[in-house]
Amino acid sequence: MLWGGISVRVVIVEGGKKPYEMELENSLAAMQHCVGGLVESVYERGGPGQCALICNGEGKLLGLPLNRALRDEEGQIYDVIAGTFFICGAPEDSEDFTSLTDEQVAYWLKRFAKPEFFVSVNGKLICVPVEEAGA
């Protein structure tokens, strides 16, 4: 992806909090600062097309707290993102990240509305949606 100096409209998802919309400078430095390290693009199966979830590519290795589960079309967990991440536009025909549309913002705010708590029981990861602290 190419990095320009303009800002893009994104949804930020921090652990233990409700997601929120903001303008983020479309630069590698700003994106690395947001996720706390190296950036990696991941895509949720069944999510709206042309969006990327940008997370710390070493989040699990660094022991960052588990944040949100990624689910397939049947609702089954196939991965968990560790640490803060954000969602931005990622058109297939472009090398640049872009701003989310109103519809995409609404989708992601709803999709990640409830923070999640994770616990391992007999080797199986259990995900429990929780209310935001102080809510």
Tell me roughly what share of residues is in helical segments. 10-25%
The amount of beta strand, in percent, is 35-45%
Rg from C-alpha positions?
15 Å
* Integer tally of domains: 1
- Compute the separation of the termini in Å: 37 Å
Mean pLDDT, as a whole number? 89
How do the SSEs run, as a string of H and E?
EEHEEEEEHEE
Largest sheet: 5 strands, antiparallel
The total of helices stands at 2
Strand elements, count: 9
Shape: globular
Class from secondary-structure proportions: mainly beta
Poorly predicted parts: none
Strand order of the largest sheet: 2-1-7-4-3
Walk me through the structure:
There is one protein chain. The chain has 135 residues and is mostly beta strands. It has a five-stranded antiparallel beta sheet with strand order 2-1-7-4-3. The chain has a two-stranded antiparallel sheet with strand order 5-6. Strand 8 (116-121) and strand 9 form a beta hairpin. The protein has one domain (7-129). It is globular. Helix content is 13%, strand content 39%. It is built from two helices and nine strands; from the N terminus they run ββαβββββαββ. The mean pLDDT is 89.
Summarize the structure.
By secondary structure, the chain is mainly beta. 13% of the residues lie in helices and 39% in strands.
